[in-house]
Specification:
393 residues, mainly alpha, Serine Threonine Protein Phosphatase 5, Tetratricopeptide repeat, elongated, binds zinc ion
């Protein structure tokens, strides 16, 4: 059985043989017809159909040595190999093309672009980067070359280079990349925070907010910078801005936010936060934070009352787990029933999706600002199907 994808090759082949027959006379006059073009191509095609691609490549490369008017054919073939994931073969074809001295300028650029994509797909980012940098200086090719470069720098986590490439893209095209550039600055701020370099982190966060003043991640990071420098009031001010940006994300800071209120000894502030932000419990973390708060304030009885009320309105497994734990503390129901309930709740916990990408459906238990599935930026949001029993849109 041969791979039907090779049928695609028949199309350019047909064109090529038509072209050949039209030009055969010229060939004969040039004295180069001792290498018979159609028979060589059909020989090559035959090898392809018999799943002997390397032999086919040999034949096609030989044809190229005789006549470089068949460049299109080679580009098509190389492209097909790359799409099939046969990157080494694609690379060989494209390298061979570029080595031909008699390519036109456009043909050389086209071959460079193909080879750059081979390197990119093979993960040879240094080589791909060099070629895309060359292509980026050619006006007609700059847009896609810069796009690839930004992807390379994202993969290599070279965030400063990624910023400068997208800034260049913005200048050369009509596109607005400010939201992605803001994410790059947030990546830099994350690294600075991990190294405890708070002043650099602050600078990067400022740059991120200058690009996108509604950037939730930068707002979270700004609060973190203030918190690390013991500016708790500023940390609270930054984090409470999230409620207006997207209340679902309050869960990302809720524990530290409550801690900051405690450090400020600001009971009234905490109360108001509970009334406004934790009025609507968008996800499990917010529910847990509220339970923690109520327990500190009203004791176990207060929480039990809240949970019972909450459960009559919401089929929340998290609330059920807490209520169950309180009941167990009081002696529980029966050992056997306790064990069953415990098993069901644990299994549900393990299956719960906490974060979900709205672009590709990637789900997980930790927050990613850059989706590992589709590589989208800010496509993942806190999600809590489990706690409420129904999917909330
Ligand atoms: Zn995704």
């Amino acid at each position: 059985m041969f791979d039907p994808v090779w049928l695609l090759l028949l199309l350019p082949l047909a064109a090529a043989s038509g072209w050949y027959f039209a030009k055969r006379d010229t060939f004969n006059k040039r004295g180069s017809a001792d290498f018979n073009l159609p028979s060589a191509y059909f020989k090559g095609l035959n090898f392809l159909l018999n799943e002997q691609p390397d032999k086919a490549i040999e034949v096609f490369i030989k044809v190229l040595e005789v006549d470089s008017d068949t460049v299109e054919m080679h580009l098509t073939l190389g492209n097909l190999f790359r799409r099939r994931g046969e990157i080494e073969r694609a690379t060989r074809i494209h390298q061979n093309l570029i080595a031909r001295p008699n390519l036109s300028k456009n043909q050389r650029i086209q071959a460079l672009y193909e080879l750059a994509q081979d390197y990119f797909k093979a993960g040879l980012f240094d080589r791909a980067e060099n070629l895309f940098l060359e292509l980026a200086d050619i006006p007609a090719h700059s847009e896609y070359a810069l796009k690839y470069l930004s992807q390379i720098y994202e993969q290599e986590k070279e965030w400063e280079k990624a910023v400068s490439v997208l800034e260049r893209s913005e200048k050369e095209t009509e596109h607005d990349y400010s939201k992605i550039i803001a994410q790059y600055y947030c990546e830099m701020a994350d690294i600075a925070l991990a190294e405890n370099d708070i002043s650099s982190a602050r600078r990067f966060v400022k740059n991120a907010l200058a690009e996108d003043d509604q950037c939730i991640r930068a707002t979270i990071l700004l609060g973190e910078v203030e918190y690390r420098e013991d500016n708790y009031a500023d940390a609270v001010a930054a984090w409470r801005k999230i409620e207006t940006q997207d209340p679902q994300f309050v869960s990302e800071v809720v524990d530290k936010l409550m801690d900051a209120y405690h450090r400020l000894d600001d009971e009234a502030g905490l109360e108001s936060f509970m009334r406004t932000s934790l009025e609507k419990l968008h996800n499990r973390r917010l529910l847990v934070a509220k339970i923690k708060y109520l327990r500190g304030k009203n004791g176990k009885d207060g929480v039990e009352r809240f949970l019972t009320d909450w459960l009559t309105e919401n089929p929340s497994l998290t609330a059920l787990r807490y209520l169950f734990e309180f009941k167990q503390d009081d002696g529980g129901t029966s050992a056997e029933l306790d064990a069953i309930i415990n098993r069901v709740l644990t299994r549900s916990d393990n299956m719960a999706t906490e974060y979900l990408c709205h672009q590709c459906g990637f789900s997980g238990k930790s927050m990613h600002w850059h989706c590992p599935g589709c590589k989208g930026w800010t496509t993942i949001r806190p999600h809590d199907e489990e706690a409420f029993g129904v999917r909330r849109n």
